[in-house]
Specification:
Keywords: Membrane, Transmembrane, Transmembrane helix. This protein is an alpha+beta fold. The chain is built from 4 helices and 3 strands, in the order αααβαββ.
Length: 128
């Protein structure tokens, strides 16, 4: 089941990169998604995928709220924090984590450390 989610993730990335939904591009995208190497001994669980997808859906209204906050309230403080990567993350789930963090306007992942940390740049309102 998670193998299909990996293929769908690859297709979604392909369509985000190309922004082209012609028949030829769909065939190319499906071909690339199937030909890219993948791990047959997948460690990921459906529960992890569903949790990541739910966080992605929650990030959409959060992004709008944060964008309005940045527009109407000054955010002058910056910080770089280290966030721990959740346990048992495959490259596909790590990509989704980074995408969700970067999707919101106040945060961006600066670097992924192989030892299990995200380096995240945040902006916030000035503390009184």
């Amino acid at each position: 089941m998670t193998g299909y989610l990996n293929i769908l993730l690859r297709l979604a990335i392909w369509f985000l990169l190309t922004a082209n939904f012609t028949v030829a591009n769909i065939i190319i995208g499906v071909s690339i998604a199937l030909l890219l190497p993948h791990n047959h001994q997948s460690r990921e669980k459906l529960k992890d995928w569903l949790r990541a997808l739910w966080q992605g859906l929650k990030a959409i209204p959060t992004a709008y709220i944060e964008a309005l906050q940045i527009i109407f309230q000054p955010h002058t403080q910056e910080e770089i924090v280290m966030e721990r990567v959740p346990a048992r993350r495959t490259p596909g789930l790590i990509f989704l984590d980074i995408f969700i963090i970067t999707f919101t306007p106040k945060t961006i992942v600066v670097k992924y450390h192989e030892d299990g940390w995200y380096e995240v740049h945040r902006i916030q309102r000035r503390k009184a």
